[in-house]
Amino acid sequence: MTPPAHPSPADPDRLPPTPAQTVGPFFGYALPFPGGARIAVDGEPDPITVHGLVLDGAGSPIPDALVEIWQADRDGSLAGAPGSLRHDQVTSAVVGRDGTAFTGFGRVPTDADGHWAVRTVAPGPHRPGAVPYLAVAVFARGLLHHLHTRIYLPEHAEGLRAQFPDLPEGRLGTLLAQRERAGVYRFDIRLQGERETVFFDFP
Amino acid sequence: MSRSPRTSIRDGATQREIDAAMAAADRVGPPDPHHPNRDYPPYRSSALRHPRHAPLPVVDPEAVELTGPVFGVTDVSALDNDLTLGQTGEPAGQRITVTGRVLDRTGRPMAGQLVEIWQANAAGRYAHDLDQHPAPLDPNFTGFGRCLTDGDGEYSFTSIRPGAYPWRNHLNAWRPAHIHFSLFGTAFTQRMVTQMYFPGDPLFPYDPVLRSVTDQAARDRLVARYDHQLSLPEWTLGYRWDIVLGGPSRTLFEDR
Ligand SMILES: [Fe+2]
């Protein structure tokens, strides 16, 4: 067997990465944690809810997907605090974050109807002039390697367009959350098919 | 758009049909030789769950994804890395130690990294209501654990060796024994979910999940190595598995 840590011939200065594998169907008792959807801190004056469906190529909801969010705080800070998975020291049970520090991390499994929701805050620009967004990783049974996408809030539609000038309008729209009512935004993730969500790769 | 021809494998396909589809996929090869092709017909549930568009490459040294969530001492408990503890009795099966280092692609150890694992019990059954195959649940084994890597990037778990289990991808489909792993890295681009396998498993050639990684050298990187130095007398068998996280990070950009 090949020892894992040796350079690859094509790229001698860099170790080849460990390959991805699907999250499978049975992550539900291991990865989700209490309060995983509650990214906003307690007393947040202006919380938002972002929610939607994860859909397959036939338009059917995916009940065994996992959605993760990573984002800047309202002031644009990307220095998320630890403590998303805070433990009770007596029982060792995960009790989740204490609501004081912004960890920037959310993790929610889809429900039986393919729906997910997080309660968070609109991210600020991560540098002066940056177009803010929520970074998303999607995992599912049947998906061999997770996918990255981004959620842009509707007020940043122009900035989004400027960032990806070559993307056709129809595809661009898949990155834009729809405002449903004050503080509530809809963002469906379509893994395949008509209106397939734009996914990203970071080479 | 997807490169491979639109083939779909029928419900109730035989292993022979799956073997032929895996051989065909081997000839095409994936767009990224390090990772599975998301469009992999022999794994039937991938058919409607892979994008047809190629992912859009992003090269932006200021992307949000070049940073990521951070975890610390409150995110794990002292018992979290021993899956044999926490119940009233000992789980059934053979006790194992699984340890290794988490590295970035330059070979630097990644300290303080959250590592999460989950697995089936010794009989091949998950503690999940949707796993209903007729193998016993083990009241002393739920099968998930967490730890943080130490200063040398090393993680370590004590567990029991998981059993192989049947699934319904095709007739007589069996997954080789494996442990699911989840890792973060220092950037969201390095986020990784994968599976670790045990050396010499006779089910390897039949399994479309493992074989979705079509490059043999890449596939070998998913297989742990038996390490006799790690085994403890009359107690545990030791396996060593290093993990290399790809993907750019803010620190890597700063090094350029
Ligand atoms: Fe599994």
TrEMBL record, chain A:
Residues 1-19 have a biased composition (Pro residues). Transmembrane segments: none annotated. Keywords: Dioxygenase, Oxidoreductase. Pfam families: Dioxygenase_C (PF00775). InterPro entries: Intradiol_dOase_C, Intradiol_dOase_core, Intradiol_RC_Dioxygenase, Protocat_dOase_a. Residues 46-160 form the Intradiol ring-cleavage dioxygenases domain. SUPFAM superfamilies: Aromatic compound dioxygenase. Belongs to the intradiol ring-cleavage dioxygenase family. This is Protocatechuate 3,4-dioxygenase, alpha subunit.
Automatic annotation (TrEMBL), chain B:
Residues 98-126 form the Intradiol ring-cleavage dioxygenases domain. Keywords: Dioxygenase, Oxidoreductase. The keyword Transport does not apply. PROSITE patterns: INTRADIOL_DIOXYGENAS (PS00083). Residues 1-49 are annotated as: Disordered. Gene3D superfamilies: Aromatic compound dioxygenase. Belongs to the intradiol ring-cleavage dioxygenase family. This is Protocatechuate 3,4-dioxygenase beta subunit. It comes from Actinokineospora diospyrosa.
